[in-house]
Amino acid sequence: MDQALCLPLHPLGVKPAGNAYTSTQSLSNPLQSLPDGLVVQILELLDFRSLLDLGRVCKALFAFSRMDELWKTFCLDSPLRDFIWRGSWYASFARIDSNQTVKIACSDLFSDVIYRPFQCAHTPLESYTTNIPKRNEIRRLANLTACEFAEKWTCTPFILTEAIKEWPVCAQWSEGSLLRDYADVKFRAEAVDWPLRTYIEYMNRNADESPLYLFDRAFAEKMDLKVGHDGDYWTPQCFGEDLFAALDEQRPDSRWLIVGPERSGSTFHKDPNATSAWNAVLKGSKYWIMFPASPFLPPPPGVYVSEDQSEVTSPLSIVEWLLGFHAEARNTAGCVEGICQEGEILHVPSGWWHLVVNLSPSIALTQNFVPEAHLRQVLVFLRDKPDQVSGFKKSVQNPYGLLVEKLKRKRPELLAETLAKIEGVQNGKKRKWEKLVDGHNEEEYSPTQSYGFSFGFGDDDNEDIP
User: Fold this and answer.
1) Around Cβ 432, how many Cβ atoms within 10 Å?
2) For residue 389, which of 177, 244, 219 has the smallest C-alpha distance?
3) CB 74, CB 124: distance < 8 Å
4) CB 163 within 8 A of CB 278
5) Tens-place pLDDT, residues 67-103
6) In this structure, are residues 238 and 147 in contact, taking their beta carbons and an 8 Å threshold?
């Protein structure tokens, strides 16, 4: 069935802009000479009283003034004391239930700027997350040993179906149990710190295009959790030694509690500091789509990256990307996809682009780590991209130097071997560049080859691509 036929009507009756071509009438709008996007930018400059006053001018401006994203900004920029979620950002700011908000029929208003967020918030995800081509499927395994992971799987995404079944939190945690034990504990949800009680209310009753995602790095301390094999959860043994552990208390942020409603998630990104990661789903399920990073491959369709990779531009919401680019992505070389179900854990290799969306309300734990196979990438990143390094305490002025110093004491042979490889790769690239500029081996040059600057962290044998 056509997805458009599955969508409910906009609560004010607003329709996509294209419908105006077949309509015999449309609402008057004193700002209709301006593009709708510019109108919204102007409204973003108003305070809430002015926005309310503007909404009283006419039906069209009423519809613009009730765009919930505008009221979300008011709620987040100036958090209300004793904030209570009431079903929408406007209702929460006005302190009324969403069922009591005024709704004026605007069925003759045609605006993509107003309609598109509503469309994205109600577009079914099933057609994008099912019927995954066989060639794209993320490998599913019961478990791995540390040797198997180190020898074969460090550069490949996979899902383990049995590795976390024995975690106590797998059996103990649910929305109800977390509310029972931590209702008044504040957790970070993007730009705000809310009591868990408030976030769960929001999670269960929102219609946002991009729902707020609870993503808290201090959860273990807040919840008094014990991390380790005799504790509440632990890193599966297959992932081996985490070399960032050598930093002890100076290591960057590395673990997070993730809670979110259906449709929440993360748009395309790479994990920080060239680390690898695991993501364990305790409740719910998550759809993942991933692409390898390489100097020979572009970023995923719809994702645009600055030359130094410090800035990433992509559609504002996950569903916006799915609507516009998913079909192309599914047929792009290197694409892998899969659903990580409740009780399963997914591996994200260093440098891989990934987008993830919750298919149902979800509770998960994630951790970034540095396996031996990717120490080189991490050291090069810390050394060469200090402006992009994140998660370290302000007192750590030189993360690269700190890691080298710690590994000299704890893993001297591994460090020496890795630094030698880095030096060898650099010398090899330097020789290639000198040959090129000197005019040697010109017949070997191709515009598709990579010389000098590299977007990746591996050498020219492209080892990061499975």
Assistant:
1) 19
2) 244
3) no
4) no
5) 999 999 999 987 777 899 999 999 999 999 888 888 9
6) no
User: What whole-number distance in Å separates Cα of residue 75 and Cα of residue 83?
Assistant: 9
d(CA 348, CA 158): 8
Nearest partner of 29 among 76, 74, 63, 67, judged by Cα: 63
pLDDT (0 to 100) of residue 429: 59
At residue 30, φ and ψ (nearest 5 deg) are -60, -15
Question: Whose structure tokens read 């977007």?
Answer: 455
Quote the tokens at residue 46.
């108003």
310, 311, 316, 317: CA torsion to nearest 10: -20
Give the Cα separation of 201 and 85 in Å (integer): 6
| Both tokens assigned to 102 | 């005024």
Q: CB of 60 within 8 A of CB of 28?
A: yes
- Contact indicator for 358, 260 with CB cutoff of 8 Å: yes
Q: Is 41 left (phi over 0), alpha (psi -120 to 50) or beta?
A: alpha
277 close to 378: Cβ distance less than 8 angstroms: no
Structure tokens, 246: 């050598």
The residue count for the chain: 466
